[in-house]
Amino acid sequence: MREERPRELRPPREPRRRVRERQWPAYVFLSPWMIGAGVLTLVPMAVSLYLSFTDYNLLEPPHWVGLRNYTEMLTEDPRYWRSVGTTLLYVVVAVPLKLALALGAAMLLKNLGQGRAFYRSAFYAPSLLGASMSIALVWRALFNDGGSVSHVLGWVGIDTGGWVGDPDLAVFAVVLLSVWQFGAPMVIFLAGLQQISPDLYEAAELDGAGRWRRFVSITVPMLSPVVFFNLVLEMIQSFQVFTPAFAISSGDGGPADSINFYTLYLYERGFSASHMGYAAAMAWLLLIAIAAITAVLFRTSRSWVFYADEEGR
């Protein structure tokens, strides 16, 4: 005869009424955030989604047009596709350069003895100031025809003229402004570097590993979660760049639409041309694109992001 196993004694399930009574204080404290998220985020998103299917000029009531805004955008608007290409170029160039500079500065600060706090604050300051309109206008003056950059390059025999007025160089002026603001990812990289055990570097050095081998085999794998975090944040921010392009191009995306980024063109169609329905459709396509790229990054991260507390990663 089979022996009957003793039944596991489980604690009695708490009545739902008592559970709700214990949970209501949490909902009370969360209610300001929930109301703010609904009123300031969810409701505007729903309204913008509705407007994306309408012809709306900000003065007259919206008129339902279905998918016309989307079809016009994808098939009849060459400036839209130029803005997409310009934005992609900016993201592909600016994000890797910014992360590389931030990682390099973080590694220098990690090995710095005295003055680390001062240099960390000095390197972080551009991240606080760089997004302002005043800094963008100063940047425009530096890279304009006859500005300081053209003079300095002229002294070393490189005659580029004003970058702002050159369709081939204007976008790189905006890229340099973004790269200059490497302070925020640098601080995150520095925090990640300080979490790597020095014992790993000592053991590798005893085995004869040089600096480059220690960087590739220890620093990069151990820092990969931080690299992934910074990559996702910087990618999302780069797709939404607006202020530098608006200030440097005087709001028209020139010269020859060379810095007419996606958000700048969205602003132009929505507020300058009063096609708010078209601008809402552009905003939703941008949201979908960012969500898709972010999902791809999360999916591919399984093959190159390694976590010390998880096996098989």
Automatic annotation (TrEMBL):
**Could you say which protein family the record assigns here?**
Belongs to the binding-protein-dependent transport system permease family.
Transmembrane stretches, start-end:
26-51, 88-109, 121-142, 169-193, 214-233, 276-298
- Top-rank taxon, per record: Bacteria
Q: Which CDD domains match?
A: TM_PBP2
Question: Which InterPro entries does the entry link to?
Answer: ABC_transporter_permease (IPR051393), MetI-like (IPR000515), MetI-like_sf (IPR035906)
Domain named ABC transmembrane type-1: which ranges?
84-297
Kindly give the membrane topology term recorded for this protein: Multi-pass membrane protein
What protein does this entry describe? Sugar ABC transporter permease
